[in-house]
Design brief:
The protein is α/β, with parallel strands linked by helices. Helix content is about 25%, strand content about 25%. It has 5 helices and 13 strands. Strand 4, helix 2 and strand 5 form a beta-alpha-beta unit.
Length: about 220
Amino acid sequence: MILAAGRGERMRPLTDSTPKPLLRVAGDPLIERHVTALARAGISRIVINLAWLGSQIRDYLGDGTRYGVSILYSEEYPVALETAGGIIRALPLLQPGPFAVINGDILTDFPFETLQLAADCDAHLVLVPNPPQHPEGDFGLEKGMALPAAASRYTFAGIAVYRAAFYAGCVDGVFPLKPLLLRSMAAARCSAQLYTDLWEDIGTPQRLQAVNDRMARA
């Protein structure tokens, strides 16, 4: 699943007329980079949630045929349901078994084919070194498990694997992800890994411009 429903307030005015996942890095929309990377990883079924200007995403990507995948859409009109709420709404569209979830507004070369989820876990998070705009990080990492707090904290990359059981007891509606992550960590059922290669949170016009400038020089 690719999360693409957010309004992108920090990216305004660019997102007043374009959904954030369709903003371009080196000429390619961020979400299209994800779709092609997932296809290369052998993932053939992709669900994308839509809210703000979602019709533009649907019109651009279509049914996924030209990428060699099947794309389904989960509607969240009139308002986005936050991260967990969006995933809960989309659960009927996802295949049985563990599924990967990727934020639609990040730039990364993470090898999605390497994602795994242990039998005794309901969630697996990809963490990254803390970027300048988020120096305190989100979670700790010890012996392959995510922790609410630890001596060293890292930033959640917006890449994860979940089982439907992770969302047990949740109902359709607006719902944030963090309480469910903390519940899973408390039960020692949330594993994690640290990824140190390319990852960028394209959260503001300035960061988008900086990434494009850097890639133009490469």
